[in-house]
Design goal:
By secondary structure, the protein is α+β, with helices and mostly antiparallel strands. The protein has a domain of 225 residues: 2-Layer Sandwich (Cell Cycle, Spindle Assembly Checkpoint Protein, Chain A). 46% of the residues lie in helices and 15% in strands. The protein has 10 helices and 10 strands. Helix 5 packs antiparallel against helix 8 and helix 6 crosses helix 8.
């Protein structure tokens, strides 16, 4: 009974701890295996620690800060293609940003000098867009140029946008018609209200019908004739768009960017300045369009010839053929185009 109890106690406690005995080598052998196992684990841990240390040291040594110049060059150099050897590869020279910037500045300065010379000697400014433009963009070019010519040639006391702003102010001022009849009212900024309203009305009518004409036909040329008559005007300005490549879609240039390029060239050429005094005149607009476009507001002038006895100032717009991806209208197609005259003339006024 006592033996069974002792056996149960030993089973509950666990296997007996091996002891050293001189008679049998089992326990000694077991202890040796136990010690050997600890030795193996200790050696493995030390080896793992050394391996991790060496790996960390190798990672630090291979960091970009410690890479040698030869390793960096070999990493940048592309792998040799089929039939090529990698022994004669040379590193491409890095371009100097400062030198390229100076070259661009020099090129632009030369272009500006040529633009100024053409504007001074030939009365002409050439603007080449690096891509195609939209039909709506061509209409915007003409409309903005008309506003600019009227203001620069002192036919308007201020810019078109300022006049529109003052007109809106006048409408919201709440003045009654009786007060306007008794005492001629002056719009903000000292503009005569009635004359300002009449000029804006005529100019808006011309601009809106130009948009309608551009929607019906391709318009390669537009004339602004100041003073005199259609046969012999005092001043003649031409917008030539025969070399413009018109396309649709997202691949076309932004109209706002093209307008900045256009007016920058116009400013450099100084095409609209004149030391001679300018008197108030009427401005007539004529446009070249297809004879069968179906426009009703513009009046066709089949026998009209562009006046040659007056100095003509030309704003020539074109698109780079290599970048536009489109071709302008062929010259042979201009035979079906005739001149149309705006029935309303914009009368200049001043304060």
């Amino acid at each position: 009974m006592a033996g069974e109890t002792e056996t149960e106690i030993q089973d509950s406690v666990g296997p007996p701890v091996p002891t050293i005995s001189a008679e049998t080598g089992t326990q000694t052998e077991t202890e040796g295996q136990y010690k050997a196992g600890r030795l193996v684990l200790t050696d493995s841990a030390e080896i793992g620690t050394q391996t991790g240390t060496e790996t960390e040291r190798e990672r630090q040594d291979m960091s970009p800060e410690r890479e040698s110049g030869e390793e960096q060059r070999s990493r940048r150099e592309p792998a040799p293609g089929p039939g090529e050897t990698g022994s004669v590869q040379t590193e491409a020279p890095v371009p100097d940003v400062s030198e390229s910037g100076r070259e661009d500045s020099g090129t632009r300065a030369c272009d500006d000098e040529e633009t100024a010379r053409k504007g001074r000697e030939e009365g002409r400014v050439d603007v080449v867009f690096p891509g195609s433009v939209t039909l709506d963009g061509c209409c915007r070019f003409v409309c903005e140029l008309l506003k600019c010519v009227l203001y620069q040639r002192q036919q308007l006391p201020m810019t078109y946008d300022q006049m529109v702003f003052f007109q809106k102010q006048q409408h919201t001022s709440g003045r009654s018609e009786e007060a306007e009849v008794k005492k001629p009212a002056k719009a903000c900024g000292g503009l005569p209200w009635r004359r300002c309203q009449r000029t804006l009305q005529d100019l808006d009518e011309v601009l809106s019908n130009l948009e309608a004409l551009f929607s019906l036909s391709h318009v390669p040329r537009v004339l602004f004739m100041l003073g005199g008559s259609a046969v012999l005007p005092a001043e003649l300005y031409e917008v030539n768009m025969e070399a413009v490549a018109v396309r649709g879609g997202e691949k076309c240039l932004r109209t706002s960017w093209c307008l900045r390029q256009l007016f920058r060239a116009l400013f450099v050429a100084d095409l609209l300045s004149d030391v001679k005094p300018v008197r108030l005149v009427s401005t007539t607009v004529m446009a070249l369009a297809h004879r069968d476009c179906g426009v009703a507001w513009f009046k066709p002038k089949v026998d009209f010839k562009v006046p040659t006895k007056v100095k003509r100032r030309v704003v020539s717009l074109s698109c780079d053929a290599a970048l536009s991806g489109g071709a302008p209208v062929a010259a042979a197609d201009w035979d079906d185009y005739i001149w149309f005259q705006a029935p309303v003339a914009v009368k200049g006024f001043s304060t």
